[in-house]
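CO-FOLDING WORKSHEET

Operator: S.A.
Ligand of interest: calcium ion
Run index: 302
Mode: holo prediction, single chain
Checklist:
[x] sequence pasted
[x] SMILES validated
[ ] output reviewed
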Amino acid sequence: MKLTVSRPNDLYYPLTKIQYKEKNMLKLTVLLCTFTFMSSSQAATRVFYTGFENGTTSDLDYSKCTVVKTAPDGTGPKSGNYQLSCNWNGTTDWNDPQTLLDSQINSWPYTNEFFLRFWSRADADVDSNDGSKLFRLSSNSDNDEMYAACQYEYGPASAPLFMAWYIDGGPLGQSSVYYGGEERCGPNKWNKYEIYVKHDSDNTNGIVRVWVNSVMIFERVNVNTNTPGAKWYPFTFPSNWSSNPGWEHDANNHTLWDNIEIFSDSASGTSATGLMSDATISVSDRTAEPVTPPTGLRILQN
Ligand SMILES: [Ca+2]
Ligand SMILES: [Ca+2]
Ligand SMILES: [Ca+2]
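OUTPUT RECEIVED:
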């Protein structure tokens, strides 16, 4: 951070009392800014990351999904060479493992705050029946739960994202918050999802926020956000429901996933800069992330 103050007269005249005070205030401001920057950069670390670039699901705790280079509709990953491909088969019995080919991250280190970021895309084969949940964050208390559903039943032009949170068994917020346009939940477009959770300490000072493609679509502040002792995991994705009567799907409904990362107030992960609370958090070492090489380049010679 570099502050420039242009006051040429200061160079030639002794400082007045007020100027002296201003100068010291400036020093204090610089000091505070530096301290704030250092605090935000050291407060959180990245405790989980996968872009599936080892070609397997080994970074996940559980997965029936497969790592692929190309999705069924021919689309490549968000970045790098690989992506995770999940499918729910709505033609099988409810208890057939083929009904739901999903994945899970069981837990991650955090005390009171975490930030989850991932990219997801609906393949062209996703149908427009009910029950198409994008993901679920469950609590080990059984009283807290959050889920998001991409409502493809509204039609391919809209597919709103439905967000629901339940704390201590009661609703914190339930709303269909995101409709239509280019920023729709789906289909066929890579979307970035970000979730920030801060536990309350007295049932009145918790925070939850959700962003889609960097636009905040859901926010609750100064609320009860968790049951004492509970944590907001596992993270299950997708979490689709085929067996509810009337919610049947056909055999192929793929969702693609890439670049899943979790930051938290734990000091155990990779160093990061920015804040979790406003979704600016990122790892300082971007070389750790794969970059999709440009295609279609031509070398022009004079
Ligand atoms: Ca990847
Ligand atoms: Ca389908
Ligand atoms: Ca609470």
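REVIEW:
The longest strand covers residues 254-264.
Residues 17-43 form the longest helix (27 residues).
[x] output reviewed
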